[in-house]
Amino acid sequence: MGFLSDRLARIKPSPTIAMTTRAAELRAQGQDIIGLSAGEPDFDTPSTIRDAAKAAIDAGHTRYTAVDGTPSLKRAICEKFSRENGLDYKPSEISVGTGGKQILFNALLATLNEGDEVIIPAPYWVSYPDMVILAGGTPVIVECGIEDGFRLTAEALEAAITPRTKWLILNSPSNPSGAAYDHDQIKALTDVLLRHPQVWVLADDIYEHLVFDGFEFATPAQVEPKLKDRVLTMNGVSKAYAMTGWRIGYGAAPEALIKAMAMLQSQSTSNPSSIGQYAAEAALNGPQDYIAESRAVFQRRRDLVVAGLNDCPGIDCPTPQGAFYVYPSIRGLIGKTSAAGTAIADDEAFANALLEETGVAVVFGAAFGLSPHFRISYATSDAQLTEAVARIRRFCEGCN
Length: 400
Prior knowledge:
By secondary structure, the protein is of the alpha/beta class. Helix content is 39%, strand content 12%. The chain has 2 domains: 6-44 and 290-397, Aspartate Aminotransferase, domain 1 (Alpha-Beta Complex), CATH 3.90.1150; 63-285, Type I PLP-dependent aspartate aminotransferase-like (Major domain) (Aspartate Aminotransferase, domain 2, 3-Layer(aba) Sandwich).
């Protein structure tokens, strides 16, 4: 009998973390590495939020809190949903966790039984399938290719639903593609879901505020009020307010699900950081001008990267609607050989060769369930992005 659990054999380490780790190793060896694999803003947390955290420490707010969030933070979250999304929730319908990932994991663990199916559009955030598997469910991957704008269609959703389907995970804007669903595209999906009352929606809205070109964000519970009692809307402060390390995410859902998630959290991590919660409350209640300023920077960087990549032989880079990622196709490079003699058999070989031969760290598309692509995070400086794109161009020009 082995010591480690059999369930560990069903999942794999995060490929994004693996690539970031490899890039760090090469950098430590003295190599000039440009890391474009990590998904976090490169800005400082706004000073008003940092000041609120310091004040909370000085006021002695360093003890345990309610398991799934302080009453004042839950009220701030309710006000956020009302103000920004037109959604009415009570504090008892709010859960606060140690990052958005815990909200997702708690919800899946609280609801999935062996054999229950979860529809996951691909490309997907790398953690979705593994979280479903750890909770005992079965991921049902639906490929949403470049020809569909990396978005799930109503027809594909209808075809994927079975009597065992319990959840649809919908991430908009998306990690890794940056694709976002507008009101009408979401409405087409919710029309399908209304015909299947056993299916719930897990709406991952973590990139809500990072949308470009006047795109109007919408979320399923807002688009179709009849579905609200079957939606968990997850969000957080990590991306919009550059608070990745503060580890505060939150979700809104019917009270019965929230209570079940709180019970799980009480037996795992218990409450999120008290100081992180006070900082998140300041983020939601405080000045919001920071968001528009960071959005403008990200849009400029997006345009720089998209234009540069589309000048690279063999690469086709669509323009994303949001987040801070691009997800280019390398179909034109498959089967070629790099200048250093590496065979580009697939997108993983491409990403590895790119790192070893040029010092640019990206994440290969197979990690996100859709090949042949790769993901770039443009949450870094214009100078770094310009140099990275130039290195990628030289790499592609050297392939034959």
